[in-house]
Amino acid sequence: MNEKLYEALEVCLNDLETGADLESVLTRFPEMKDDLLLLLETSRQARMLAIQTVPENVHHRSKARVLQHAAGMRESGTKSRRQRAIFTFPRLAISLAIALLFLLSGTSLVRASNGALPGDNLYPVKRTWEDVRLLLVFNPSSREELEGEFEQERLHEIDELLAEGRHETIAFAGVVTEQNGDLWVVSGVPVQITPYSQLPETAVTVGTSIMLEGRTNAKGFVEAERVQILGSSIVLPTTVPTEIESHEDTSDHGNSGSETNDNSGQDNDNSGQDNDNSNQDDEELESLSNENQGDGGSEDNSDGIDSGSNGNDNNNSNENQGDEDHSSEDRSGEDSNSEDQNGSSDSEEGSDENNNETHD
Amino acid sequence: MDIRTQPVSPKMTNMLSQTTLADAQFELDGLQKLDAQVIGAVYDRYFPDVYRFVCYRLNDEQVAEDISSDVFVRLLEAVKKRSGPRTNLKGWLLATASHAAADYLRHTYRRPTEALSETMPDGSAPSLTDEVDRREMVASVRQAYNSLTPEQQNVLALRFGDGFSLDETAAVLQKNVNAIKALQFRALAALQRNIIGEVADE
Predict the structure, then answer these.
(1) Residues of B with CB below 8 A from A73's CB?
(2) pLDDT tens for residues B113-124?
(3) In A87, A269, A279, B11, which residue has its Cα 20 to 30 A from A304's Cα atom?
(4) Which residue on chain A is closest to B142 by alpha carbon?
(5) What is the spatial distance between Cα A238 and Cα A350, in angstroms, rounded to a whole number?
(6) CA distance B168 to chain A (A)
């Protein structure tokens, strides 16, 4: 019954909406006429509450408000997108900067510390970086190799300290190769034993591996403070008096004169000038400085005829070591250069000058 | 302007709802991009329905104007946040309007009703007494209407305020057609009882 009434009401409402007359609509449902009449009358009253049209001014005013809001949203949308970009940018930038800092501190700082000597601010960085590198090597043989390399580096540092005449506390391991009373040569480093030096109970002889703590002095010696004998198991630089450290070193100490010290100083200056003049890659700089050293060596040769051939030999050995230690491409060039030098007569200054010109 | 003055037949409604479905995505895309033209078109298309619905429910043109435009603002915000309507834009707008009206009623003291419309529905020149009678009648109907449940108010607002068909009303209120038939019947019956009661009280 109720469903029929609902349906009838709906039909009547639709008919009325389409303009039908109330009487004629009701005739379709005679049995519900009374109920429907009241409800349809009420629906007519309900329609009276409705507004017929939307006032135009209301429509436009409200539309303007909505569109204005949309414009504001567009504006703030782009702004907030920009703000979001700015907001996300710092986060990205910060993390990138941190990553970069790590990378740079890992490379540039370490790179900067490469040439650090004991007593320099960056020297701890250099040593730490070496420790880190050792930590990362698990293969025993390559670890040994690396340790040897670092020991060589210690000797090289000492050489530089001595060349610069600095007073620094150092410690290094080496093999005693010469003993002239209080003057020893340990892996190519001249060491002076003083009355204050703490020596081991067993006598130190040529060929003994020792750990030496001391201070460099301006006279080109290491003043030994403490000497310890090392077990044979400990990794040491090659027993041959150091090769890497140097050409300067060997020529210096081979001549064992203050002149050659000066020369090596000049060499350093030269390489320094090269550094200043051209912002070249490290490798190029290295090769340049090597070549300068080579030139220096050949100049030494021209100065001292006795040691001339030695000097050239030193050149060769130096550059051969370069082969071992540095990237190979530069070296091949250097080798050919050195061979050229050897091929042309040793004492010909002309060829040397040619070389200088080409290198410079 | 799409201001509906004539009630819409069910057939036309079907047609409209189909075009609504077809245009819905275009409209929503435009709203998403805050395209002024699409917003304008959507506004022109639906504002009269919303405004008349709110007017019917609240009997306050000023408030209805505020709420109606606010509904469209909310639409823009919702579409931007992708929480807006998926397909039934009109249903969403009217449902939002219904909530806004309910909120308004909750938060404000329901003021004594005033005669809403100054113009006669049929446009005939009324005599003074007719006009007074009509105003009294409207006032009593308004009072009776205000006593209805919100659901009943919505059905009457949609069907008689907006002239929506049963299907459209069902779509907006998200109920099936038969439920709307019953609802409108009970709403009219209740309205009638209330009017009679008021008359009896007087």
Answers:
(1) 34, 76-77, 80
(2) 444 444 444 555
(3) A269
(4) A49
(5) 37
(6) 13
